[in-house]
Amino acid sequence: MVLGATGSVGRQTLEVARRLGLPVTGLGARSPSRQLAEMARDWPGAAVAVAGGSGDERREFSAGLGTGRVDFGSEALTALAASSGSTVVNAVVGIAGLPFSLAALQAGNRLALANKESMVAAGQLLRATLATGGGELIPVDSEHSAIFQCLVGEDASAIAGVILTASGGPFRGWTVEQLETVTPAQALRHPTWDMGRRITVDSATLVNKALEVIEAHHLFDIPFDRIRVVVHPQSVVHSMVEFVDGAIKAHLGPTDMRMPIEFALMHPRRGPGLVNRFDWPGVNLSFEEPDPTSFPALRLGFEAGREGGSAPVTFNAADEVAVEAFLQGRLGFRGITRIVAQTLEAVEHVDPSGLEEIMSIDREARMAAAALLAGAC
Ligand code: MG
């Protein structure tokens, strides 16, 4: 079951499933597209769910696939996520993926989570659902997969802290002045990872790392003062765990999302490995502190995470709006983090109790960010 099938992680998941000989029972996507139709033909046993699309687009898409193959609306993706006995790969981009994560865990499924926004916005809710639903949660985000793998066989009480590595993005070492004139094309050129557009821009601002700090806090139940971020430009070490005796385990490997995807699909076994073996000669590893002046989003994310409640929801929502404005040329690069900071100040913080309240805070934060954008442009 792959939700967000046509995105970067979705496409790679289908490739991994094909090569491992695993069945795909469902394909979910935001809109009806030729690419999704091709996927549906490649996987004739898969039910198809499409969240959006106009009436005409839906009719045309449906006719192309044959009757009974496709359901429309966001609730169709929720229904796929809730099909019992499935492994649900949630590779939807943004907060839109949250209801599907929740549905998968409520149904007691294995959730292979690439949609980090779910954990950021609703970490407590998802953890509680995981505990009561009897499902499994395996992270697909490379850093969290690395930490998860370092923790296999370890007791939670032995963890002293986690160290998330960050490539530093395309603007590592740049000054505030240099960052003023960054274009979307420059921000979309990530030095080590090949990913979707939003996450690539988020990697350039370090918002992505901030979201990953909050994700790690919830996934591994680690307090924020025991989460550290180090910049590691080579992206060979995917993350590390430090134990109470001072030992550190690191997870290393090629920068290829097919590895964490394969792990999440195969766990507790290991698959055959689908990517080239790591080539050691000539590899030098270096580590440095993140630059808080050029990349203030990291500190902002830690603060939102510590504040908890609705703050991480607002942090994520404002960033989704600001990144879109940046990609459309309506906002400068440094404006992304500024809009996020201003939205956090503008929106009242509450303690959301459930999915609906989280989604309503998300909408409110988006409106506030859009209003701030309108004022800034
Ligand atoms: Mg990551």
Short overview:
By secondary structure, the protein is α/β, with parallel strands linked by helices. 48% of the residues lie in helices and 13% in strands.
Written account of the structure:
This protein is 48% helix and 13% strand. It has helices at residues 8-20, 34-42, 55-65, 74-81, 98-106, 116-133, 142-151, 176-179, 184-187, 197-205, 207-220, 258-266, 297-307, 311-327, 333-346, 355-376, and strands at residues 2-3, 26-29, 47-50, 70-72, 87-90, 110-113, 136-139, 159-166, 227-231, 237-243, 248-252. Helix 6 links the parallel strand 6 and strand 7. Helix 5 runs parallel beside helix 6 (116-133). Bound molecules: magnesium ion. Magnesium ion binds next to helix 7.
In angstroms, what is the radius of gyration? 20 Å
User: What sequence of helices (H) and strands (E) makes up the elements?
Assistant: EHEHEHEHEHEHEHEHHHHEEEHHHHH
Mean pLDDT across all amino acids = 96
Number of helices in the DSSP assignment = 16
Low-confidence parts, pLDDT < 50 over ≥5 residues? none
**Percent of residues in beta strands:** 5-15%
Distance between the termini: 42 Å
Query: Which structural class do the helices and strands define?
Result: alpha/beta
In this entry the ligands are: magnesium ion
Strand order of the largest sheet: 4-3-2-1-5-6-7
Helix content: 40-55%
Number of strands: 11
Q: What best-fitting shape do the alpha-carbon axes yield?
A: globular
Main sheet characteristics? 7 strands, parallel
